[in-house]
Amino acid sequence: MLTKDAAICIRATDFSETSQIVTFFTRATGKISAIAKGSKRPKSAFDGPIEVLSYGKIVFSDSTKEKLAVLTEFEQQPGFTNLAADLFALNCVSFAAELVDKLTDDYDPHPELFDSFLQFLQNAQDTQKKRSTLVLLILFQLALLKEVGLRPILNACANCKNSFSADWPQCYFSNSANGLICKDCEASFPDKIRLTKTAANCLANVKLIAESDEKTLNEIEKILIFHFTEILGRPPKMAKYILKD
Ligand SMILES: [Zn+2]
Predict the structure, then answer these.
(1) Are 36 and 19 in contact (CB under 8 A)?
(2) What's the pLDDT at 16?
(3) Quick check: 64 pLDDT over 70?
(4) Residue 162 CA to ligand 1 centre (angstroms)
């Protein structure tokens, strides 16, 4: 049986001189890996070699657990070629693609996450401003965590459940608690990281993120990278390109 779906390529590896193994995040089917036979030939059914973050309609044959799906068509949309001109934005969306790949399961659909990812690609291409791109990345990462059932507790202490208040004398983030930790509870969480008041306030009131300065955004992104590192058991490959300066 053939399935047609909207898809964003999140991983592509060479399989042979002419073929690739590609992983797509699709809207209705979720993540799928497929062999794209002959994709690297000058004339293929896929409009040329398939690159990460290319986007469009795909047709693929059903796979079983033991067998890869076979990609039969890929009608590429103009896509996000402008991203190549903005290295920081390209790194941020590549990081997002890596996280979607690592945190979602094959054939587990998340149509809302697909829409957010597509919107993120579009907005990152349009903004061309580092601060705005960082805002988009942080909001996408929070949406991703929510979609995969790992939504952190950010409006209260994840341990004692006391509501967050801007006058908390100290505030921490703990991966093991999956959220903010207050001063009274912090001693029980050796993995905690102390947050500045501004960063804690932004995490507790996500709407403030869009107006935050770059320093606060960098602090929040650092916390999220630490969090993803703990969730995945190793640092995401793209993480080092996000906070290098
Ligand atoms: Zn507490």
Answers:
(1) yes
(2) 94
(3) no
(4) 6
| Amino acid 66: pLDDT | 67
pTM of the model: 0.94
- Residue 152: closest CA among 174, 132, 131, 133: 174
Digit-coded pLDDT (tens) for 109-167: 999 999 999 999 999 999 889 999 999 999 999 999 999 999 999 999 999 999 999 99
Coil, strand or helix at 18: coil
Beta bridge partners of 114: none
Size of the chain in residues: 245
Instruction: Report yes or no: 181 and 195 within 8 Å, Cβ to Cβ.
Output: no
Q: How far is the CA of 235 from the centre of ligand 1 (A)?
A: 28
Torsion of CA 213, 138, 87, 111, to 10 degrees: -150
60 C-alpha vs ligand 1 centroid, how far in Å? 50
**d(Cα 188, Cα 159) in Å, to the nearest integer?**
9
**Which value, in Å, is the radius of gyration of the alpha carbons in the chain?**
20
Distance of CA 172 from the midpoint of ligand 1 (Å) = 10
Beta carbons within 10 angstroms of residue 201's beta carbon:
18
SS3 143: helix
